[in-house]
Amino acid sequence: MELGLSGKRALVTGASAGLGAAIAEALAQEGVRLAVMARREVPLQGFVARHGAAAIMCDIADPDALDRGADAAAAALGGIDILVNAAGAAGPIGLGGDDAVWARDFALNFTAPRRLAERLLPAMRSRGWGRVISLTGNNETHGLNTAGAAKAALTFWSKGAASEVASDGVTVNAIAPGRLWSEQIRNRIHPDEAERARFIADNIPLGRFGDPEELAAVAVFLASERASYVTGTTITVDGGMARAVR
Ligand SMILES: NC(=O)c1ccc[n+]([C@@H]2O[C@H](COP(=O)([O-])OP(=O)(O)OC[C@H]3O[C@@H](n4cnc5c(N)ncnc54)[C@H](OP(=O)(O)O)[C@@H]3O)[C@@H](O)[C@H]2O)c1
Q1: What digits encode the pLDDT tens for the residues 197-234?
Q2: How many of the other CB atoms lie within 10 Å of CB of 193?
Q3: Which residue among 191, 200, 231, 238 is least packed, with the fewest CB closer than 10 Å?
Q4: How many domains does the chain have?
């Protein structure tokens, strides 16, 4: 299938690790020119060495740094056709959790992707083509999680924004990951092998965590010309976990 992606220009946040890194690689393989954004320079420079991209080091939770990063990415590529909001982090928290923690986690998981999209959307609309794809999360959460609430807000923002820009050839969608191998899954969320095996047996019909490339394929499709009639929706990539949640 011809995806119509060659020569398009994409900004991928969270591209130093995990799902964002896999999406950036998959887009590069389709001939997309990339700006990759994260705080850590070394992995971004590795990507630049492989694909000749623009590396933008920035803490996206800082609005001024984010605006400067967005402008630098657009200047480096001559414009951005595709935005992939992949940066984020889970934030388990209890009732009565600190307001400062809620504010910090909303800044990362909701305000940053919304603000970045709203900065890049006007140029996409005036060119008559654009894609915004945001990674959200499992919508069937058990415990309290700051990121879960922020991602729910991002899901609703995506739906609303999709209808605002639909007539200009721009689509806005979300991908809801279940459990895919990444730094945070390996090191923070499921570090223990026995717990991991129990979690998989209880929750994931496909019987394993996903590979980042399995989600990246969905992101590439949503970014492509072939997804022109898909907007305002969420595609879940979770090995069947949403249906199996107890
Ligand atoms: N993997 C899963 O199964 C899963 C499940 C549910 C939701 N998600 C969502 O999918 C997205 C990717 O997750 P992942 O599992 O691939 O995570 P990961 O391996 O921890 O990678 C997170 C990425 O976000 C970047 N990032 C974090 N905080 C940042 C900040 N303040 N400023 C700039 N960049 C920042 C990190 O780069 P630096 O550290 O270099 O800044 C890194 O590139 C996240 O939004 C996450 O919430 C993933």
Answers
A1: 999 999 999 999 999 999 999 999 999 999 999 999 99
A2: 8
A3: 191
A4: 1
